[in-house]
Design goal:
The chain has 221 residues and is mainly beta. The protein has one domain: Beta Barrel (Porin). The longest helix is centred in the first third of the chain and has 18 residues. The radius of gyration is 22 Å and the shape is globular.
Length: 221
């Protein structure tokens, strides 16, 4: 009886918690701008986010939770299909004279990404602003590496489960209207070296962590 009573109390507590909270499910889509950024110097960042560099997308669903008693604080979790990429340079030695040249390449990787963020929002009537920060985990579905000089395409191979994993942190801000429509910007940085160098694939960088700036639009139901 005691066990059954505790279960009932837990159920009552959960129902009460849901009744004093604001929960919303939404769909999200946006554009990613990705590149290999070596530092936060202004020139480095300006050179990385040029229109000719790799641009990609993300799309999926999100769940946002805010308490009614304290609507400013909340959290968000989502499931997104996200294409990330990186442009890179590598050294190539050719000919009898060992002439060293710099070749360019890029890679694309498709991920299922799970973001988990803490949120803070400030309401201004029908409009508002919000900020967030947190962590993300991602699982690679597939990818490719391309050498721009020869247009040589090589499919990325993933030997183990851990080779497909990526994780890092993200933060951002945005504006919302009627607590239904949100326009936001996000900066995320991977913490794992996702490069896969090999003798068969010399164009692959030896050190690579995803750095992504994205702009997205979210509609909440």
């Amino acid at each position: 009886m005691r066990t059954k009573g505790r279960i009932i109390l837990v159920c009552v507590f959960l129902i009460a918690s849901l009744s004093v909270s604001a929960q919303q499910i939404g769909i999200r889509g946006g554009v990613n701008m990705s590149n290999e950024i070596k530092s936060f110097e202004r020139e480095e960042i300006n050179n990385s986010f040029k229109s000719e560099n790799l641009n990609s997308f993300h799309v999926g669903v999100v769940f946002q939770y805010h308490q009614k008693k304290n609507p400013a604080l909340g959290f968000e979790v989502g499931a997104l299909l996200a294409q990330k990429g990186s442009a890179f340079n590598y050294e190539n030695v050719e000919g009898e004279n060992l002439i060293e040249t710099i070749q360019k390449g890029y890679r694309e990787v498709n991920f299922i990404e799970i973001p988990l963020n803490l949120r803070f929002r400030f309401s201004l009537g029908i409009a508002g602003i919000y900020g967030f920060g947190g962590m993300y985990g991602a699982y690679a579905l597939g990818g490719k590496t391309v050498g721009e000089a020869t247009d040589e395409i090589s499919k990325m191979s993933f030997g183990e489960f851990s080779d497909r994993l990526d994780f890092g942190y993200s933060f951002g801000l945005g504006v919302e209207l009627l607590r239904k429509l949100q326009l936001g910007a996000t900066w995320s940085r991977g913490l794992k070296n996702t490069a896969q160098p090999s003798s068969e694939n010399p164009t692959e960088p030896t050190d690579s962590k995803f750095k992504v700036f994205s702009v997205n639009l979210t509609f909440l139901f």
